[in-house]
């Protein structure tokens, strides 16, 4: 059992303010909607299987530190 090679596109940007201690970020993963298997289970009791990865995903967040 083999797994073909793959490549994806992800981007992340951050903005930080030293004055407020605030950091904000926005991130996108698998932006080209590439379907691939991130791992393969070869010794599973039910038999070998491919484990698909996530579809395109977007994240945003804030971090505050003093």
Describe the structure.
With 66 residues, this protein is an all-beta fold. Helix content is 0%, strand content 48%. It contains no helices and 5 strands. The strands form 2 sheets. A 3-stranded antiparallel beta sheet has the order 1-2-5, with no helix packed on it. A two-stranded antiparallel sheet has the order 3-4. The mean pLDDT is 90.
Question: How is this structure best summarized?
Answer:
By secondary structure, this protein is mostly beta strands. It has no helices and five strands.
Percent in helix: under 10%
- Can you count the beta strands? 5
Give the SSE order as H and E letters: EEEEE
> Terminal Cα separation, in Å?
51 Å
Shape estimate: elongated
Largest β-sheet summary? 3 strands, antiparallel
| Beta-strand residue percentage | over 45%
- pLDDT averaged residue by residue: 90
Kindly provide the radius of gyration, computed on alpha-carbon positions and rounded to a whole number of angstroms: 18 Å
Which structural category do the helix and sheet elements fall into? Answer: mainly beta
Poorly predicted tracts of residues? none
If helices are DSSP runs of H or I spanning 4 or more residues, what is the number of helices? 0
Adjacency order of strands in the biggest sheet: 1-2-5
Layout of SSEs?
Elements: E1 11-17, E2 22-29, E3 37-41, E4 49-52, E5 57-64
Antiparallel strand pairs: 1-2, 2-5, 3-4
Can you tag this structure with a few keywords?
66 residues; mainly beta; three-stranded antiparallel beta sheet; two-stranded antiparallel ribbon; elongated
């Amino acid at each position: 059992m083999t797994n073909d090679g793959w490549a994806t596109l992800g981007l992340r940007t951050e903005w930080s303010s030293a004055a407020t201690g605030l950091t904000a970020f926005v991130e996108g993963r698998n932006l080209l909607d590439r379907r691939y298997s991130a791992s393969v289970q070869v010794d599973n009791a039910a038999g070998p299987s491919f484990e698909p990865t996530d579809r395109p995903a977007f994240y945003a967040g804030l971090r505050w530190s003093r």
